[in-house]
């Protein structure tokens, strides 16, 4: 009799453990990949700036996105190059790139129109390129910043499901940098509000 009671207790305990809930319980069967092209409008160093990049990763439970992305400045943004006495030597073209880990949470992903919160945490680098038309004999064609700096770029996005594998999102955010220091460029020159358009393709699993 005692053995039967003991077996029943084991079965009940096992059943209870099997039904235990967790704060986050991703459904492994719903994991699928995604890729996206991102176009972002911002202001860098006081000038209008167009940034283009790509991102990719995995979607869990249709709601949790974990991946990585890389982005670069696509428009012409000037940067003043100065000497030790802060006297203007010339005006170069800025090169700005950044990338890192990306996290996104999507609310009500099965609705045609839904929204999400997103953030990138990574590193950036900045350099300048001399305008050879103005300085044809210049030896300073490409001057790199040696040390990368921290980039955090959170945003709020509104998404429209176009098809089961394709969606378009429009969002706005605020990029923050820490440690940028190149010629006349600092954190204040790079940080600010931005708007973005994302075209995302996802798996059908």
What does the oligomeric state look like here? single chain
C-alpha end-to-end distance: 50 Å
Radius of gyration: 24 Å
List the helices and strands in order: HEEEEEEEEEEEHE
Per DSSP E runs of 2 or more residues, the count of β-strands stands at 12
Structural class: mainly beta
Range of strand content:
over 45%
Question: On the 0-100 scale, what is the average pLDDT?
Answer: 82
Q: Helical amount among residues, as a percent range? A: 10-25%
Strand order of the largest sheet: 1-2-3-5-6-8-9-12
Tell me about the largest β-sheet: 8 strands, antiparallel, barrel
Count of DSSP H/I helices: 2
Shape: elongated
**Stretches with pLDDT under 50, minimum 5 residues:** 2-28, 137-141
Describe the structure.
The chain is mainly beta and 205 residues long. It is 10% helix and 61% strand. It has 2 helices and 12 strands. The strands form 2 sheets. An 8-stranded antiparallel beta barrel has the order 1-2-3-5-6-8-9-12. The longest helix has 17 residues, at 2-18. The protein is elongated, with a radius of gyration of 24 Å. The protein starts with a helix and ends with a strand.
